[in-house]
């Protein structure tokens, strides 16, 4: 079959398998276009928990598919690109977290959703970039171990009186932006609104107009009156920005902001995953049962 027939074959297989396709805002445009839901991590976790279907095809990275498997153990969860990982999620292990917990016995643990299921199983509550501040302020403890993203931890610390103990992990894509890049972009596009993701460094956040999750950035572009925007997050978001806000102009803060793992999924892989019901993502029952509490506490907020 030539490549042009693949989207139709995906739709046919999707019906046959009673499958839903979830895609993150950083996925390739053609993958986003065949998905049932395209969203940020929080929206995709909610969709995985709530939508009907026997099969979830996760076009994203491994921790997202794991979260879906934890929330919907009765469903078959497929990750078409099985090596699509999040290097930040792998910057902390459950053993390392247990050690930090033993040093701060009164602290609660907030884990970014970008973590393994084993780390979630050691945590009190999960958060995403969309709700980190609300999650931190929702828990009774005054001391919080926040893993693994140091930048999101420090961003949340700006909006709470609690003591935040950050783990020193970071996103390879967002941690590379600099304040000088923001100055240059502002100079090139005077009047453009600067929107950045909270995985950026504090000095980059300091020079932004708004800080938001990927879907938060999409919402700002849709709803703000201004016509020009500088976008400080992974370039995959530009596809949805163009589709949803064709009257606005969005300039990437850097064209190098590419998450190679988010780009590993292609349409042929999605078709093959639906046809073979492989590669599957599963989480051992005992780990899943312990991790579910942290995720469900977040979803209940
Ligand atoms: P959000 O889409 O939740 O803002 O997260 C960005 C990200 O880097 C996911 O890996
Ligand atoms: Fe992980 Fe960063 Fe890629 Fe998101 S963009 S999956 S945080 S490496």
- Report the span from N to C terminus: 47 Å
List SSEs in N-to-C order: HEHEHEHEHEHEHEHEHEHEHEHEHH
Q: Classify the secondary structure makeup into a structural class.
A: alpha/beta
Cofactors and ligands: 1,3-dihydroxyacetonephosphate, iron/sulfur cluster
Number of helices: 14
Overall pLDDT metric = 97
Strands in their spatial order, largest beta sheet: 2-1-3-4
Molecular structure report:
By secondary structure, this protein is α/β, with parallel strands linked by helices. The protein is 42% helix and 16% strand. It has 14 helices and 12 strands. A 4-stranded parallel sheet has the order 2-1-3-4, sandwiched between helices. The chain is globular, with a radius of gyration of 19 Å. The protein starts with 5 loop residues before the first helix and ends with a helix. 47% of the residues are buried. The protein binds 1,3-dihydroxyacetonephosphate and iron/sulfur cluster. Iron/sulfur cluster (SF4) is lined by residues 61, 86-88, 114, 171-173, 234, 259, 261-262.
